[in-house]
């Protein structure tokens, strides 16, 4: 969509500094259908930006929040949504890197640029605007910028709240991109694609000729595959219980597929057999401890021929230590497991501490290690020049008022990303 800067600047002069009435999808309770209704959106305050949202989509984080799976994170009424693209309608005091008419994408993992985390090259976290599912108001004054038509507050979500025709964000959670970039595709960089590609590039640093296993082939898992393909991985194994995901997987570079339901052995054993000991990198994109365990065990091992774990020590339901004091042998290995799935609290890692002495590693990743303001414009350019193919991720498109239908498509596993036109 090509929206002329001058025409939009003229339009914004009539709304800047004023309360805007627009349509939004409001969540009134856990699992209740979203209600499209009129809401009021206040002007941006200091270091805030009001954005006209043109496209938004739904990911599993929206889904779990809509369901209210974590009671501590519930806040209603609330405007969900964190994947989007749009145009700056107005800016608050102090905002210098964006102006009316700029094309922008929001991101939930903010980058203030001044805190100790933002100044460090070792992390993409931010002390002030980092992702916080408990946060439901703006930083400036602890209030919302959304309200019902009778003036009652409507809460924010993940620094973004994109299920609205207009939204207000801290400028730290928004970045300007090239006006030539297709906004409908750029919305995917707000979360899913950036999270997966970045996990392969920034967190794992996948090397040419390496082997990769991806557990869970939703949008994030397929984005991992896309990132691994671009990096030159020679073997990319996709693991999912939904065989319909395999067709999409081939399009983004997956070379082999495993459906755990078709196996009579654990997945890690199958992967070990077809990779001569395991993969160099594994990615857990499901949010399930047993899947995480399989992902960890799928990385490379060199097992002594006389090693028999079933007889050497008791095997727990999940944890199988890779060291036997009985036989005195270590199982050597290597490999990195990247944790991407959102796991319910208070579950603990299904690992024995001694397993981390045998060469394998595990690390978590948020937003693919990307610093939003610093690095997303470059990622957008790479998408524009064809380095990454975003077309495969948009499986459905619907008008905004059909948002509940889009949720159902995701629940049924029929969509990767359903693009909603506002």
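^ structure tokens above, recovered residues below v
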């Amino acid at each position: 969509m090509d929206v002329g800067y001058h025409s939009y600047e003229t339009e914004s002069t009539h709304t800047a500094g004023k309360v805007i009435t627009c349509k939004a999808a409001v969540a009134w309770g856990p699992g209740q259908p979203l209600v499209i209704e009129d809401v009021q959106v206040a002007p941006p305050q200091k270091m805030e930006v009001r954005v006209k949202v043109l496209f938004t989509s739904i990911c599993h984080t929206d889904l779990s929040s809509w369901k209210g799976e974590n009671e501590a994170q519930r806040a209603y009424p609330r405007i969900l949504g964190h994947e989007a693209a749009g145009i700056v309608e107005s800016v608050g005091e102090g905002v210098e890197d964006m102006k009316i008419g700029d094309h922008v994408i929001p991101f939930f993992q903010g980058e203030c640029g001044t805190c100790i985390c933002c100044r460090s090259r070792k992390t993409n976290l931010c002390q002030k605007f980092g992702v916080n599912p408990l946060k439901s108001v703006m930083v400036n004054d602890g209030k919302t910028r959304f309200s019902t038509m009778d003036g009652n507050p409507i809460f924010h979500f993940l620094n973004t709240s994109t299920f609205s025709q207009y939204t207000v964000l801290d400028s730290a959670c928004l970045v300007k991109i090239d006006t030539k970039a297709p906004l409908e595709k750029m919305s995917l960089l707000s979360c899913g694609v950036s999270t997966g590609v970045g996990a392969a590039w920034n967190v794992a640093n996948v090397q040419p000729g390496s082997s990769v296993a991806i557990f869970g082939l939703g949008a994030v898992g397929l984005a991992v595959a896309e990132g691994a393909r671009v990096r030159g991985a020679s073997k990319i194994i996709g693991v999912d219980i939904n065989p319909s995901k395999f067709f999409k997987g081939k399009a983004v570079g997956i070379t082999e597929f495993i459906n755990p339901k078709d196996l009579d052995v654990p997945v890690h054993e199958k992967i070990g057999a077809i990779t001569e000991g395991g993969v160099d990198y594994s990615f857990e994109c499901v949010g399930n401890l047993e899947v995480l365990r399989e992902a960890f065990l799928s990385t490379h091992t060199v097992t002594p021929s006389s090693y028999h774990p079933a007889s050497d020590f008791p095997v727990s339901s999940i944890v199988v230590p890779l060291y036997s004091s009985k036989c005195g042998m270590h199982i050597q290995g290597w490999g990195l497991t990247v944790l991407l799935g959102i796991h319910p609290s208070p579950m603990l890692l299904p690992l024995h501490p001694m397993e981390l002495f045998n060469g394998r590693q595990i690390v978590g990743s948020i937003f693919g290690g990307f610093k939003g303001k610093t690095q997303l414009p470059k990622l957008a350019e790479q998408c524009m020049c064809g380095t990454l193919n975003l077309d495969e991720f948009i499986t459905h498109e619907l008008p905004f008022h059909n948002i509940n239908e889009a949720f159902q498509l995701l629940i049924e596993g029929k969509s990767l990303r359903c693009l909603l036109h506002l």
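Residues 196-303+330-365 form a domain with the Rossmann fold fold (CATH 3.40.50.720).
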